[in-house]
Amino acid sequence: QVQLVESGGGLVQAGGSLRLSCAASPSTFSIHAGGWYRQAPGKQRELVAPISTYGSTNYADSVKGRFTMSRDNAKNTMYLQMMSLKPEDTAVYYCQADIKIGDYTYSYWGQGTQVTVSS
Predict the structure, then answer these.
(1) Which residue, 40, 83, 43, 41, is CA-closest to 59?
(2) pLDDT tens digits, 8-38
(3) What DSSP assignment string belongs to 14-54?
(4) Which is it for strands 67-72 and 113-118: parallel, antiparallel or unpaired?
(5) The pLDDT value given to residue 102
(6) Are 110 and 4 in contact (CB under 8 A)?
(7) Residue 38 vs residues 24, 100, 105: alpha-carbon distances, Å
(8) How many other CB atoms are there within 10 angstroms of residue 74's CB atom?
(9) What is the pLDDT of residues 53-102, one digit of tens each?
């Protein structure tokens, strides 16, 4: 059974940094397209940073210049490097990935990791 395993969340002061990881398990399954989402209390889940099959990325205006998404194809892992964190970045962060199994591509979600930024 394929899973996305997230790690790296936590509590940080404003201006600090965190790096989130999202690994496909078992690691033999390759992540194609995907992205990082976040959901703050009382708000809808929003797309923070998508990544295409070819590795091109994009960012929500609210995180542009502060967050960097990357993917390590050898480890089948996606990362979200977050810098200059603000209290409004506080949310549960989820990764999503499209994984090809045989002739079909399936969408998977990570379990979510809490990021809390204190002022």
Answers:
(1) 83
(2) 999 999 999 999 999 998 877 888 899 999 9
(3) TT--EEEEEEEESTTSPEEEEEEEEE-TTS--EEEEEE-TT
(4) unpaired
(5) 86
(6) yes
(7) 19, 24, 23
(8) 7
(9) 999 999 999 999 999 999 998 999 999 999 999 999 999 999 999 998 88
CA distance 58 to 27: 25
Contact 3, 109 (CB under 8 A): no
What is the identity of the amino acid at 18?
L
Angle at CA of residue 119, ends 94 and 13, nearest 5°: 65
Closest of 99, 102, 101, 93 to residue 40, by C-alpha: 93
The per-residue pLDDT for 98 is 94
Q: Can you read off the two tokens belonging to residue 11?
A: 């509590």
